[in-house]
Amino acid sequence: MNSMLETSEAAWLLLKEELRAQAFSLGVDKLGFASAEPFSQLKDVLVRHRQKGYESGFEEPDLDKRTDPSLTLATARSIISIAVAYPSKLKSPPRSEPGAYRGMLSRSAWGQDYHHVLRDRLKRVEDWLKTRVPEALIVSMVDTGVLVDRAVAERAGIGWVGRNCSVITPEWGSWVYLGELVTNIPFSPDTPVLDSCGDCTICIDACPTSALVGHGQLNAQRCISYVTQTKGMIEDDELKRKIGNRLYGCDTCQIVCPKNKGIHADHHPELTPDPELVKPLLRPLLQMTNREFKERFGSSAAAWRGKKPIQRNAVLALGNFRDVDSVPDLVRLLKTDERPEIRGSAAWSLGQIGGDAAKGALREALRRETDEALRRELKKALVRLGEMDEADKDGNDRGNTGGHHSV
Protein backbone atom coordinates (compact mmCIF):
# COMPACT_ATOMS: atom_id res chain seq x y z
CA MET A 1 0.00 0.00 0.00
CA ASN A 2 1.17 3.55 -0.69
CA SER A 3 2.14 6.06 1.96
CA MET A 4 -0.66 6.70 4.44
CA LEU A 5 -0.83 10.32 3.28
CA GLU A 6 -1.49 9.18 -0.31
CA THR A 7 -3.98 6.44 0.48
CA SER A 8 -7.59 7.03 -0.54
CA GLU A 9 -10.63 6.35 1.59
CA ALA A 10 -11.60 3.52 -0.78
CA ALA A 11 -8.22 1.85 -0.20
CA TRP A 12 -8.68 1.99 3.59
CA LEU A 13 -12.12 0.48 3.17
CA LEU A 14 -10.66 -2.34 1.08
CA LEU A 15 -7.95 -2.96 3.72
CA LYS A 16 -10.61 -3.04 6.41
CA GLU A 17 -12.62 -5.69 4.60
CA GLU A 18 -9.48 -7.73 3.85
CA LEU A 19 -8.64 -7.74 7.56
CA ARG A 20 -12.17 -8.73 8.48
CA ALA A 21 -11.99 -11.62 6.00
CA GLN A 22 -8.66 -12.73 7.51
CA ALA A 23 -9.83 -12.53 11.14
CA PHE A 24 -10.63 -16.20 11.64
CA SER A 25 -7.33 -17.34 10.13
CA LEU A 26 -5.62 -14.99 12.61
CA GLY A 27 -7.40 -16.76 15.49
CA VAL A 28 -9.98 -14.01 16.00
CA ASP A 29 -13.67 -14.91 16.13
CA LYS A 30 -15.02 -11.42 15.58
CA LEU A 31 -13.44 -8.12 14.65
CA GLY A 32 -14.93 -4.62 14.60
CA PHE A 33 -13.85 -1.03 14.02
CA ALA A 34 -14.58 2.05 16.12
CA SER A 35 -13.68 5.71 16.02
CA ALA A 36 -10.99 6.95 18.41
CA GLU A 37 -13.15 9.79 19.70
CA PRO A 38 -13.26 10.18 23.51
CA PHE A 39 -15.87 8.10 25.38
CA SER A 40 -17.45 11.18 26.95
CA GLN A 41 -20.67 9.57 28.18
CA LEU A 42 -18.70 6.69 29.66
CA LYS A 43 -16.59 9.11 31.67
CA ASP A 44 -19.72 10.52 33.32
CA VAL A 45 -20.80 6.97 34.21
CA LEU A 46 -17.37 6.14 35.65
CA VAL A 47 -17.37 9.31 37.76
CA ARG A 48 -20.73 8.35 39.31
CA HIS A 49 -19.51 4.79 39.71
CA ARG A 50 -16.53 6.00 41.71
CA GLN A 51 -18.63 8.36 43.83
CA LYS A 52 -20.87 5.44 44.83
CA GLY A 53 -17.90 3.28 45.83
CA TYR A 54 -18.59 0.65 43.18
CA GLU A 55 -15.04 0.31 41.83
CA SER A 56 -13.01 -2.83 42.45
CA GLY A 57 -9.65 -1.09 42.77
CA PHE A 58 -8.21 -3.23 39.96
CA GLU A 59 -9.03 -0.58 37.33
CA GLU A 60 -6.79 2.12 35.86
CA PRO A 61 -7.36 5.02 38.31
CA ASP A 62 -7.03 7.82 35.73
CA LEU A 63 -10.52 8.24 34.21
CA ASP A 64 -9.17 10.42 31.39
CA LYS A 65 -6.86 7.61 30.26
CA ARG A 66 -9.75 5.15 30.45
CA THR A 67 -11.94 7.24 28.19
CA ASP A 68 -9.65 9.17 25.81
CA PRO A 69 -7.77 6.99 23.27
CA SER A 70 -5.52 9.93 22.32
CA LEU A 71 -3.83 9.61 25.72
CA THR A 72 -2.77 6.11 24.63
CA LEU A 73 -1.78 7.15 21.10
CA ALA A 74 -1.68 10.88 20.32
CA THR A 75 -2.37 10.32 16.60
CA ALA A 76 -5.15 7.75 17.14
CA ARG A 77 -7.71 7.68 14.29
CA SER A 78 -9.51 4.38 14.98
CA ILE A 79 -9.69 1.36 17.28
CA ILE A 80 -9.91 -2.27 16.20
CA SER A 81 -11.78 -4.44 18.70
CA ILE A 82 -11.33 -8.21 18.70
CA ALA A 83 -13.28 -11.01 20.35
CA VAL A 84 -12.07 -14.57 20.96
CA ALA A 85 -14.72 -17.09 22.01
CA TYR A 86 -14.04 -19.46 24.93
CA PRO A 87 -15.62 -22.71 26.17
CA SER A 88 -18.65 -22.77 28.41
CA LYS A 89 -18.91 -26.51 29.11
CA LEU A 90 -16.64 -29.11 30.70
CA LYS A 91 -16.21 -32.48 29.04
CA SER A 92 -16.70 -35.27 31.61
CA PRO A 93 -16.58 -32.99 34.69
CA PRO A 94 -15.50 -34.70 37.93
CA ARG A 95 -18.24 -34.95 40.53
CA SER A 96 -18.18 -33.32 43.95
CA GLU A 97 -19.15 -35.79 46.66
CA PRO A 98 -18.91 -36.27 50.45
CA GLY A 99 -15.27 -36.68 51.48
CA ALA A 100 -14.14 -35.43 48.07
CA TYR A 101 -15.71 -32.02 47.64
CA ARG A 102 -14.51 -29.84 44.79
CA GLY A 103 -14.14 -26.16 44.07
CA MET A 104 -14.66 -24.36 40.78
CA LEU A 105 -12.73 -21.89 38.66
CA SER A 106 -14.82 -19.59 36.49
CA ARG A 107 -14.69 -20.11 32.75
CA SER A 108 -12.45 -17.05 32.36
CA ALA A 109 -9.72 -19.10 34.05
CA TRP A 110 -10.10 -22.21 31.89
CA GLY A 111 -7.20 -23.20 29.66
CA GLN A 112 -4.17 -20.95 29.24
CA ASP A 113 -4.24 -17.46 30.75
CA TYR A 114 -6.41 -15.50 28.32
CA HIS A 115 -4.12 -12.47 28.62
CA HIS A 116 -1.40 -14.47 26.84
CA VAL A 117 -3.84 -15.87 24.27
CA LEU A 118 -5.29 -12.42 23.49
CA ARG A 119 -1.85 -10.82 23.26
CA ASP A 120 -0.90 -13.51 20.73
CA ARG A 121 -4.02 -12.75 18.66
CA LEU A 122 -3.46 -9.00 18.87
CA LYS A 123 0.14 -9.51 17.75
CA ARG A 124 -1.07 -11.50 14.74
CA VAL A 125 -3.44 -8.69 13.74
CA GLU A 126 -0.73 -6.09 14.31
CA ASP A 127 1.81 -8.02 12.20
CA TRP A 128 -0.75 -8.44 9.42
CA LEU A 129 -1.41 -4.71 9.38
CA LYS A 130 2.29 -3.79 9.51
CA THR A 131 3.03 -5.87 6.39
CA ARG A 132 0.46 -3.76 4.54
CA VAL A 133 0.98 -0.39 6.24
CA PRO A 134 4.60 -0.38 7.49
CA GLU A 135 4.39 3.16 8.90
CA ALA A 136 1.22 2.44 10.90
CA LEU A 137 1.33 3.17 14.63
CA ILE A 138 -0.47 0.57 16.74
CA VAL A 139 -0.90 0.15 20.50
CA SER A 140 -2.64 -3.06 21.57
CA MET A 141 -4.09 -3.91 24.98
CA VAL A 142 -6.15 -6.53 26.78
CA ASP A 143 -7.92 -6.27 30.14
CA THR A 144 -5.04 -4.64 32.00
CA GLY A 145 -4.87 -1.86 29.40
CA VAL A 146 -6.24 1.57 30.17
CA LEU A 147 -9.29 1.63 27.86
CA VAL A 148 -12.57 -0.03 28.84
CA ASP A 149 -12.72 -3.14 26.63
CA ARG A 150 -16.51 -3.38 26.81
CA ALA A 151 -17.06 0.22 25.71
CA VAL A 152 -14.69 -0.19 22.76
CA ALA A 153 -16.32 -3.48 21.74
CA GLU A 154 -19.80 -1.98 21.93
CA ARG A 155 -18.81 1.03 19.81
CA ALA A 156 -17.11 -1.31 17.31
CA GLY A 157 -20.23 -3.44 16.80
CA ILE A 158 -18.84 -6.58 18.48
CA GLY A 159 -21.95 -6.78 20.67
CA TRP A 160 -23.92 -4.84 23.26
CA VAL A 161 -23.26 -4.43 26.98
CA GLY A 162 -25.95 -6.50 28.66
CA ARG A 163 -27.52 -6.10 32.05
CA ASN A 164 -24.93 -8.59 33.33
CA CYS A 165 -22.19 -6.06 32.40
CA SER A 166 -20.75 -8.42 29.80
CA VAL A 167 -20.53 -7.73 26.07
CA ILE A 168 -23.05 -10.07 24.43
CA THR A 169 -22.31 -10.99 20.84
CA PRO A 170 -24.99 -12.35 18.49
CA GLU A 171 -22.67 -15.22 17.53
CA TRP A 172 -20.98 -16.31 20.78
CA GLY A 173 -23.12 -14.81 23.51
CA SER A 174 -20.97 -13.30 26.26
CA TRP A 175 -18.48 -16.17 26.25
CA VAL A 176 -15.80 -13.99 24.63
CA TYR A 177 -12.52 -12.37 25.60
CA LEU A 178 -11.97 -8.83 24.36
CA GLY A 179 -8.93 -6.86 23.27
CA GLU A 180 -8.24 -3.80 21.13
CA LEU A 181 -5.67 -2.06 18.96
CA VAL A 182 -5.51 1.74 18.89
CA THR A 183 -4.07 2.92 15.57
CA ASN A 184 -3.44 5.97 13.42
CA ILE A 185 -4.95 4.13 10.44
CA PRO A 186 -8.21 5.96 9.62
CA PHE A 187 -10.55 2.96 9.41
CA SER A 188 -14.22 3.88 9.08
CA PRO A 189 -16.32 2.86 12.10
CA ASP A 190 -18.75 -0.05 12.11
CA THR A 191 -22.35 0.26 13.24
CA PRO A 192 -22.99 -0.70 16.89
CA VAL A 193 -25.20 -3.73 17.58
CA LEU A 194 -28.62 -2.91 19.02
CA ASP A 195 -29.19 -3.85 22.66
CA SER A 196 -31.26 -7.04 22.65
CA CYS A 197 -31.77 -7.60 26.38
CA GLY A 198 -35.29 -6.20 26.12
CA ASP A 199 -37.18 -6.49 29.41
CA CYS A 200 -35.15 -9.51 30.57
CA THR A 201 -33.74 -9.23 34.11
CA ILE A 202 -32.81 -12.88 34.68
CA CYS A 203 -29.15 -12.05 35.39
CA ILE A 204 -30.05 -9.30 37.87
CA ASP A 205 -32.46 -11.62 39.67
CA ALA A 206 -29.91 -14.48 39.76
CA CYS A 207 -26.92 -12.50 41.03
CA PRO A 208 -26.05 -14.08 44.42
CA THR A 209 -25.29 -10.74 46.11
CA SER A 210 -27.40 -8.26 44.10
CA ALA A 211 -24.17 -6.76 42.72
CA LEU A 212 -25.83 -5.87 39.38
CA VAL A 213 -27.22 -2.46 40.27
CA GLY A 214 -28.45 -1.24 36.90
CA HIS A 215 -28.17 -1.90 33.18
CA GLY A 216 -24.46 -2.49 32.64
CA GLN A 217 -23.71 -1.27 36.17
CA LEU A 218 -21.87 -3.37 38.72
CA ASN A 219 -21.06 -2.80 42.38
CA ALA A 220 -17.71 -4.60 42.29
CA GLN A 221 -17.47 -4.59 46.09
CA ARG A 222 -20.47 -6.97 46.18
CA CYS A 223 -19.53 -9.04 43.13
CA ILE A 224 -18.53 -12.61 44.02
CA SER A 225 -16.03 -12.66 41.15
CA TYR A 226 -14.23 -9.67 42.67
CA VAL A 227 -14.51 -10.98 46.24
CA THR A 228 -12.83 -14.29 45.29
CA GLN A 229 -9.84 -12.32 43.99
CA THR A 230 -9.32 -10.13 47.04
CA LYS A 231 -6.59 -10.84 49.54
CA GLY A 232 -7.11 -10.64 53.27
CA MET A 233 -10.11 -11.56 55.40
CA ILE A 234 -13.64 -11.49 54.05
CA GLU A 235 -15.51 -9.83 56.91
CA ASP A 236 -19.06 -10.15 55.59
CA ASP A 237 -20.59 -13.51 56.58
CA GLU A 238 -23.12 -13.29 53.74
CA LEU A 239 -20.31 -13.02 51.19
CA LYS A 240 -18.59 -16.03 52.76
CA ARG A 241 -21.76 -18.07 52.31
CA LYS A 242 -22.52 -16.77 48.82
CA ILE A 243 -19.03 -17.70 47.58
CA GLY A 244 -20.18 -21.31 47.86
CA ASN A 245 -17.45 -23.45 46.33
CA ARG A 246 -16.12 -20.79 43.94
CA LEU A 247 -12.33 -20.59 44.09
CA TYR A 248 -11.94 -17.91 41.43
CA GLY A 249 -14.55 -15.85 39.65
CA CYS A 250 -18.29 -16.29 39.24
CA ASP A 251 -20.26 -17.20 36.11
CA THR A 252 -23.82 -17.04 37.44
CA CYS A 253 -24.95 -13.97 35.49
CA GLN A 254 -23.61 -15.49 32.27
CA ILE A 255 -24.89 -19.02 32.85
CA VAL A 256 -28.48 -17.83 33.30
CA CYS A 257 -28.41 -15.46 30.29
CA PRO A 258 -30.79 -16.70 27.57
CA LYS A 259 -28.43 -15.35 24.92
CA ASN A 260 -25.79 -17.86 26.08
CA LYS A 261 -28.04 -20.91 25.90
CA GLY A 262 -26.47 -23.73 23.90
CA ILE A 263 -23.32 -21.79 23.03
CA HIS A 264 -20.01 -23.61 23.49
CA ALA A 265 -16.83 -22.65 21.63
CA ASP A 266 -14.14 -25.33 21.68
CA HIS A 267 -12.11 -24.44 18.60
CA HIS A 268 -9.16 -22.75 20.38
CA PRO A 269 -6.94 -25.54 21.80
CA GLU A 270 -5.17 -23.15 24.21
CA LEU A 271 -8.48 -22.47 25.95
CA THR A 272 -9.51 -26.11 26.40
CA PRO A 273 -9.89 -26.73 30.15
CA ASP A 274 -8.43 -29.58 32.20
CA PRO A 275 -11.44 -30.74 34.28
CA GLU A 276 -9.25 -31.72 37.26
CA LEU A 277 -7.61 -28.30 37.24
CA VAL A 278 -10.72 -26.15 36.94
CA LYS A 279 -12.80 -28.30 39.32
CA PRO A 280 -10.13 -29.39 41.83
CA LEU A 281 -10.48 -31.31 45.06
CA LEU A 282 -10.57 -28.80 47.90
CA ARG A 283 -8.63 -30.43 50.72
CA PRO A 284 -5.37 -30.95 48.76
CA LEU A 285 -5.37 -27.19 48.02
CA LEU A 286 -5.00 -26.38 51.72
CA GLN A 287 -1.42 -27.64 51.96
CA MET A 288 -0.20 -26.59 48.53
CA THR A 289 3.23 -24.94 48.54
CA ASN A 290 4.02 -21.90 46.38
CA ARG A 291 5.98 -24.12 44.04
CA GLU A 292 3.13 -26.62 43.71
CA PHE A 293 0.69 -23.76 43.10
CA LYS A 294 2.83 -22.33 40.29
CA GLU A 295 3.29 -25.75 38.72
CA ARG A 296 -0.42 -26.49 38.79
CA PHE A 297 -2.11 -23.11 38.30
CA GLY A 298 0.70 -20.96 36.89
CA SER A 299 -0.62 -21.05 33.31
CA SER A 300 -4.16 -20.10 34.37
CA ALA A 301 -5.61 -16.59 34.69
CA ALA A 302 -6.56 -17.62 38.25
CA ALA A 303 -2.89 -17.47 39.29
CA TRP A 304 -2.46 -13.71 39.05
CA ARG A 305 -3.28 -13.07 42.73
CA GLY A 306 -1.19 -15.95 44.04
CA LYS A 307 -2.29 -18.96 46.05
CA LYS A 308 -3.60 -17.19 49.18
CA PRO A 309 -7.04 -16.13 47.85
CA ILE A 310 -7.63 -19.56 46.33
CA GLN A 311 -6.63 -21.32 49.55
CA ARG A 312 -8.84 -18.98 51.60
CA ASN A 313 -11.76 -19.65 49.26
CA ALA A 314 -11.14 -23.41 49.49
CA VAL A 315 -11.33 -23.14 53.29
CA LEU A 316 -14.65 -21.29 53.03
CA ALA A 317 -15.98 -23.81 50.51
CA LEU A 318 -15.37 -26.67 52.95
CA GLY A 319 -17.43 -24.76 55.51
CA ASN A 320 -20.18 -24.19 52.97
CA PHE A 321 -20.20 -27.92 52.20
CA ARG A 322 -20.31 -28.65 55.99
CA ASP A 323 -17.53 -31.15 55.26
CA VAL A 324 -16.97 -33.06 58.51
CA ASP A 325 -13.99 -34.91 57.01
CA SER A 326 -12.15 -31.61 56.61
CA VAL A 327 -12.29 -30.68 60.32
CA PRO A 328 -8.75 -32.00 61.10
CA ASP A 329 -7.37 -29.97 58.16
CA LEU A 330 -9.19 -26.82 59.31
CA VAL A 331 -8.10 -27.30 62.93
CA ARG A 332 -4.49 -27.60 61.76
CA LEU A 333 -4.81 -24.32 59.81
CA LEU A 334 -6.42 -22.62 62.79
CA LYS A 335 -3.54 -23.70 65.03
CA THR A 336 -0.52 -23.36 62.79
CA ASP A 337 -1.11 -21.13 59.74
CA GLU A 338 0.68 -17.79 59.95
CA ARG A 339 -1.85 -15.96 57.75
CA PRO A 340 -4.71 -14.31 59.71
CA GLU A 341 -7.12 -14.55 56.75
CA ILE A 342 -6.59 -18.32 56.58
CA ARG A 343 -7.02 -18.78 60.35
CA GLY A 344 -10.11 -16.54 60.34
CA SER A 345 -11.63 -18.44 57.42
CA ALA A 346 -10.89 -21.76 59.14
CA ALA A 347 -12.66 -20.45 62.27
CA TRP A 348 -15.71 -19.51 60.23
CA SER A 349 -15.83 -22.89 58.49
CA LEU A 350 -15.43 -24.80 61.74
CA GLY A 351 -18.34 -22.76 63.05
CA GLN A 352 -20.39 -23.88 60.06
CA ILE A 353 -19.48 -27.56 60.44
CA GLY A 354 -19.64 -27.90 64.23
CA GLY A 355 -18.92 -31.00 66.30
CA ASP A 356 -16.83 -31.50 69.44
CA ALA A 357 -13.46 -31.26 67.66
CA ALA A 358 -14.44 -27.97 66.01
CA LYS A 359 -15.77 -26.50 69.25
CA GLY A 360 -12.67 -27.50 71.21
CA ALA A 361 -10.32 -26.06 68.61
CA LEU A 362 -12.24 -22.78 68.50
CA ARG A 363 -12.21 -22.40 72.29
CA GLU A 364 -8.50 -23.16 72.45
CA ALA A 365 -7.76 -20.68 69.64
CA LEU A 366 -9.74 -17.95 71.39
CA ARG A 367 -7.61 -18.33 74.52
CA ARG A 368 -4.37 -17.71 72.66
CA GLU A 369 -5.39 -15.44 69.76
CA THR A 370 -4.42 -11.75 70.01
CA ASP A 371 -5.55 -10.50 66.59
CA GLU A 372 -8.82 -8.60 67.23
CA ALA A 373 -10.41 -9.32 63.85
CA LEU A 374 -9.64 -12.98 64.34
CA ARG A 375 -11.01 -12.98 67.86
CA ARG A 376 -14.29 -11.64 66.46
CA GLU A 377 -14.40 -14.52 63.98
CA LEU A 378 -13.74 -17.05 66.75
CA LYS A 379 -16.44 -15.58 68.98
CA LYS A 380 -18.98 -15.52 66.15
CA ALA A 381 -18.21 -19.18 65.39
CA LEU A 382 -18.65 -20.15 69.06
CA VAL A 383 -21.95 -18.25 69.25
CA ARG A 384 -23.12 -20.07 66.14
CA LEU A 385 -22.34 -23.39 67.80
CA GLY A 386 -24.03 -22.44 71.04
CA GLU A 387 -20.71 -22.30 72.89
CA MET A 388 -20.98 -18.62 73.75
CA ASP A 389 -23.91 -16.22 74.06
CA GLU A 390 -24.16 -12.82 72.40
CA ALA A 391 -23.43 -10.97 75.66
CA ASP A 392 -20.13 -12.81 76.01
CA LYS A 393 -19.28 -12.21 72.35
CA ASP A 394 -19.87 -8.48 72.53
CA GLY A 395 -18.41 -7.96 76.00
CA ASN A 396 -16.16 -9.93 78.28
CA ASP A 397 -15.36 -13.40 76.94
CA ARG A 398 -14.73 -14.69 80.46
CA GLY A 399 -11.03 -15.08 80.37
CA ASN A 400 -11.11 -16.18 76.69
CA THR A 401 -12.55 -19.56 77.64
CA GLY A 402 -15.88 -19.22 75.89
CA GLY A 403 -17.97 -18.97 79.09
CA HIS A 404 -18.46 -21.97 81.31
CA HIS A 405 -17.30 -24.43 78.71
CA SER A 406 -13.97 -26.14 79.15
CA VAL A 407 -11.73 -27.79 76.59
TL;DR of this structure?
This protein is α+β, with helices and mostly antiparallel strands.
Secondary structure: elements and pairs:
Elements: H1 9-22, E1 30-35, H2 40-51, H3 63-67, E2 78-85, E3 104-105, H4 114-132, E4 138-141, H5 149-155, E5 160-161, E6 167-168, E7 176-183, H6 202-206, E8 212-214, E9 217-218, H7 224-229, H8 237-243, E10 246-248, H9 252-255, H10 275-278, H11 283-286, H12 290-297, H13 307-320, H14 327-336, H15 340-353, H16 356-368, H17 372-384, H18 390-394
Parallel strand pairs: 3-10
Antiparallel strand pairs: 1-2, 2-7, 4-7, 5-6, 8-9
Helix pairs in contact: 13-15, 14-15, 14-16, 15-17, 16-17
Question: How many structural domains does the protein architecture include?
Answer: 2
Q: What are the secondary-structure elements, in order, as H or E?
A: HEHHEEHEHEEEHEEHHEHHHHHHHHHH
CATH topology annotation of the largest domain: Leucine-rich Repeat Variant
Strand order of the largest sheet: 1-2-7-4
The largest sheet is: 4 strands, antiparallel
Measured between the Cα atoms of the first and last residue, the distance is 82 Å
Shape: elongated
User: Which class do the helix and strand fractions yield?
Assistant: alpha+beta
Helix fraction, binned, reads: 40-55%
- What Rg do the Cα atoms give? 25 Å
Mean pLDDT across the residues is 92
Outline the structure in words:
With 407 residues, this protein is of the alpha+beta class. It folds into two domains: 156 residues, no CATH class; 193 residues, Alpha Horseshoe (Leucine-rich Repeat Variant), CATH 1.25.10.10. It is 40% helix and 10% strand. The protein has 18 helices and ten strands. The strands form four sheets. Strands 1-2-7-4 form a four-stranded antiparallel beta sheet, sandwiched between helices. A two-stranded parallel sheet has the order 3-10.
